[in-house]
Each structure stands twice: as structure tokens, then as C-alpha cells.
């Protein structure tokens, strides 16, 4: 492949702009906006692999199935299947939005979604320590009811935005459909893969089996980018740049940082767990596996960031 390859991660929360815009159609509108920024990059000459989160969406699907089970006796749906559902539903929207954007710009390109399984270790300590927030944000008042009605739920306070249910989030070990993704890129497709961090599977004697968990999409994206030997990893998030002393009077935004500097800032505790920390860890892992450059920015600044004007650029 002659073109430069960029792997871009989109957060599941970024597809739900606020609590009044949570419908499937609202999500499609948010994806159409993000698709424009991604197609800008393709217009600049990049081939692109898009990955996406699913934290809110997988929680909504799981809860919907639980309510149908509790109130109407419908069969319940395992968490791993809920994750697979999000790959199809979100992948379909990204694929359609990108294809429509290509058409509107007269570009002879297309996007394709690949259902992606990601191998995890069934002995991963994460299965005993749920940490991945999914679904709805609950207020302190709602928590009183939840503690009574769902004493088995594991809950955390999520970045000051409310309380959320958490599920196991094992580290991704390998991407099962890696060769298929590579083949599609070589054939000229822009690929949507490892949606929701990938469908978690464990290796058994007779093949793979799904396991209930939600993989962090930033870690899965980092692994995929390293496997594909991508020229650029872009982690899109809610802010245009990473900052030291975030949200304090000493806040300092970062533009160009070396891998060693980023590791030092990480060790100094500048990045919040469950928020910027996993994104920085994902970037560090990509660069330590041979990647040359990663950018952390928000979707609307992708083009300007790739031009070097903004975003946080981390290089070896
Ligand atoms: N799976 C995952 O990491 O999703 P979010 O990015 O939505 O949290």
C-alpha cells in the first residue's frame, strides 16, 4: 500500500452529544459530523481505519434486554452479544455516513465494517475487578433506588458526571480478524474495525468463545495500529489537546511531546484514570511497539492537528 495509514479512534460518549440527544437518529447526526472530519483526512491522501467506543450504547442495549427479561419474560442477552450488536449498529452508521460523504465530494471511495473479535486472557485480573463504565449516568438520588433494586451492580463515580455501572475490561491480546483488515486496506477500502474495543473472546481447545466484558477501545485501537504498522494513530476525545494540571489555574496544553516526556507526565499523575490516562497509555504502547507518531485531539480538530496546528503530538 502506497498511501499513509492512519488509525482513528472515536469515543462512544462523543457520539452522544448530551442527555437530550441519545436517540439512534441523534447518534447518526453526530457520526455524520465526525465522518466529515475523517473524510477530510482521506482527502489529504491517507487511508483510514476507524475504530469506535461503545460504552454508553452497550449499556443501553444490556439494560433494555434486562428490562424486557424482568417485565416480559423475554430471554436475556449476554453482555458479549450486546457488544457485538454495537459493532453492527455503530459500524453501519459510520460506514453509511462515510460513504455518503465520499459521494457528496465526488470521491470514488468506500468504507466497510468488519465484525472483529479480540482475544483476551480469561485469567485477566480485570474479570474480578470491573472498571469499565457503561450505559446511563445516574444521579446521587437515583443511586439510592439502584442500591436497593440492583445490589449486584458494580457502580463508580465517572469523572464527576454522575454514577455508572462498571463491567470487566480485560486487556486486548490479539486481533482475530487482523489479516482480513489488512487485506481490505490493501484492496483500497477504508475499514471500520474493533468497534467497542472488539468482541471479547477467549481461546479454547476447539476455537474461540465469547466472554462477558467490554474492552477499552483505546487499548484495542493501539494494538491494531501497531499490528497494521500504521503511520499515525489518532485518539479522538472531548478536548483538542492534552493538558498538564488539567482544570487548574496552572493548566498547560501540550502540542509536541516526546514519548519519554509523556511517560514522565503519566508517572507524575497528570492524567485521570478512566479519562485521559488510558488514552495516553494507548499512545505509549503504540509508540513502544514501533509506531512513529500519535495525536490526541477532538474530532473537529483532526485536520488541523494532522497539519501540525493543534492536537497533542507524541513522537518517539
Ligand atoms: N469500549 C470503549 O472503550 O467504549 P468507550 O470509548 O465508549 O468508553
TrEMBL record:
<dbReference type="InterPro" id="IPR001048">
    <property type="entry name" value="Asp/Glu/Uridylate_kinase"/>
</dbReference>
<dbReference type="GO" id="GO:0005829">
    <property type="term" value="C:cytosol"/>
</dbReference>
<dbReference type="Pfam" id="PF00696">
    <property type="entry name" value="AA_kinase"/>
</dbReference>
<dbReference type="InterPro" id="IPR036393">
    <property type="entry name" value="AceGlu_kinase-like_sf"/>
</dbReference>
<comment type="similarity">
    <text>Belongs to the carbamate kinase family.</text>
</comment>
<feature type="domain" description="Aspartate/glutamate/uridylate kinase">
    <location>
        <begin position="4"/>
        <end position="298"/>
    </location>
</feature>
<keyword id="KW-0418">Kinase</keyword>
<dbReference type="GO" id="GO:0019546">
    <property type="term" value="P:L-arginine deiminase pathway"/>
</dbReference>
<dbReference type="GO" id="GO:0008804">
    <property type="term" value="F:carbamate kinase activity"/>
</dbReference>
<dbReference type="InterPro" id="IPR003964">
    <property type="entry name" value="Carb_kinase"/>
</dbReference>
<keyword id="KW-0808">Transferase</keyword>
<protein>
    <recommendedName>
        <fullName>Carbamate kinase</fullName>
    </recommendedName>
</protein>
